[in-house]
Amino acid sequence: MTRQKYLFCYLMVAPAMLITAALGIYPMLFSLWMSFVEYDLLRINEFGTPFVGLDNYVAVFSDPRFVQTLVNTIIFTVLAVAATLGFGLLLSQILNANYRGRTAMRMLVCVPWFVPPAVASAIWMWLLNTDRSPINFLLQDLGLISSNVRWLTDSATWGPFSIPMMSIVAVRVWNGLPFAVIFLLAALQSIPRSLYEAAEVDGASLIQKFWYVTLPMLRPVLAILITLLVIGGLGSFEINYIMTGGGPQNLTNIMAVYSYQQAFSFYRFDLASAASGVIFIMTGFVSIFYLRSQLKGVA
Amino acid sequence: MMTIAVPNTATRPKLWQRLSFANKTDLVTRILIIAITVALLFYILLPVYWMLKSSFQPNQEIRVLPPIWFPSEATAQPYTNANRLIPMWRYVLNSLFVSVTAAAISTVIACSASYVLARFRFPGATIILGLILLTNLIPAITRVFPIYFFIQDLGLLNSYAGLILAYVGFSLPFAVLMLRGYFISAAPPELEEAALIDGCSHFEAFWRVILPVCLPGIAAVAIFTFLNAWNDFLWASLLLNQGEMKTIQVGIGDFAQEGGGVQYVNAFMAACVVATIPALVVFVFVQRWLVGGLTAGSVKT
């Protein structure tokens, strides 16, 4: 009976396992291997793929553009995650409160979720067009700025921060916010009302209720959400690639775009793999904590 | 319990009416919260409004400065123009074909795997689940290049089959995890125990008892995998970037990068609307499952 059951289990899981192995695990390992050999498409026929140890990693880390890209990626991720969490916490509470028009509000907040990233990039490119941006005209009418903000092309910097980077973060947050809001809303709905009633009896203010009831209750869910957002941010690609291609002056370049360009513009698949290897190490590190929490109790 | 009052929509207070119940510090907090919420709503809705508005504006009006917020007339001209500049409807059909096929294949494969991963403990189950979780988490860019060469070696570059294969690989882990959560929460083990006692095999119990019960969840997963594929830009831009076979997302990405965006911006926005509509239509179907269904796969209850 048990043997028959196991056979059934393995047969059922085999197709999914085969595909995950062939299109998930194997390519990840292959990509890591590529980062330790020479894999230059322009030289591969003549020289093959000799093992070069850490040379590719040394090469990308001695490229100032890559170091800048790495810093950009971290700043992009931190800013996007922070803004998504802040806005998400606020909006999920608004969507959880009880008032007329709540359903309509939920629908409206979810709209950007269903705008594909490529389309989101396209809309914002038009919305942030220096000469024709309605936001520029609005800010001018309010007297906040005297000349048009060059949202995607201004190359002035404040340390690692720049206007184009902020614009890109705004697009990323816009596209990713509904997911965070719904994720938090589901968690908010599972907090027992009695906790709030008890806090009200003790005379807690709105902020105190948030700080001492909501936030502690959300902690496990927040940990998961932050993990997912950080991993998504570190591997983010479309918005930067379409909107700026990493420019101006590499200010909005992030690692996935760098990697893609090394591969398909310069045919240096070894350097590209080293860059994506850095993404792998960073996201893998974050994933371990997540995996441990998810697999607890399964084994 | 009969004594619990069900919140009645008609008696719900309006957002502003709740202000009057609050004490003084809360009043300030509430006003602040409402102000920020209004600003956030503007941020959330402006791009969508601006896309829709621009897509219906005639050529001469869209170039007017300062930009017109509320156009007086609407025209469908940009939509026909967009189709002249890029084979828009053809791209949409390509996207639909590829996404539907990939969603169907990954849902079928995910159903069987997630069922046994949800229900049975067998040697290796944890490792399999761990590998699937890992594949779902680690960003696609870390496996793009080998898959590109793999599809090239199969002779499937610039074919629908190659892209569908990549999408199945990309969507499957997500589908397995989400469905596993659904099977755990929505299908009690007693269901197939009864069937097994009646002499069904494990597979018959799964096929005749579990699947029909779980159809709504399976449909939701199929729709999410469809959306994954529909929204994708990275894989499509690599594996299928030539001629009329492109997906609509790649068409839009090319449109944006060729600078056609500024010159024919109303047509460009029309193409964007068209690329969003299928996802929005589908959204209407899944919104019931949004809160429960989506988190079931990723959050453990």
Could you characterize what this model shows?
The complex is a heterodimer of chains A (299) and B (301). Chain A has 299 residues and is an all-alpha fold. Chain A has one domain: MetI-like fold. Chain A has 13 helices and two strands, in the order αααααααββαααααα. In chain A, strands 1-2 form a two-stranded antiparallel sheet. In chain A, helix 3 packs across helix 13 and helix 8 crosses helix 10. The longest helix of chain A is centred in the first third of the chain and has 33 residues. Chain A is globular. The two termini of chain A are 21 Å apart. By secondary structure, chain B is an all-alpha fold. Chain B folds into two domains: 66 residues, no CATH class; 217 residues, MetI-like (MetI-like fold, Orthogonal Bundle), CATH 1.10.3720. Chain B is globular. The two termini of chain B are 24 Å apart. Classes of the chains: A mainly alpha (299), B mainly alpha (301). At the A-B interface, helix 1, helix 4, helix 5, helix 6 and helix 8 of A face helix 1, helix 4, helix 5, helix 6 and helix 7 of B.
CATH superfamily placement of chain A: MetI-like
- Main β-sheet description of chain B: none
The share of residues in extended strands of chain A comes to: under 5%
Shape of chain A: globular
* Total DSSP helices of chain A: 13
List the strand order in the largest sheet of chain A: 1-2
Name given to the CATH architecture of the largest domain in chain B: Orthogonal Bundle
The overall strand count of chain A is 2
Helix content of chain A: over 70%
The name of the CATH topology of the largest domain in chain B is MetI-like fold
Q: Would you report the number of β strands of chain B?
A: 0
CATH fold-level assignment of chain A: MetI-like fold
Name the pair of protein chains with the most residues at their interface, and give those residue counts: A-B, 110 and 110 residues
Helical content of chain B, roughly? Answer: over 70%
* Gap from first CA to last CA of chain B: 24 Å
Number of domains of chain A: 1
Average of per-residue pLDDT values of chain B: 84
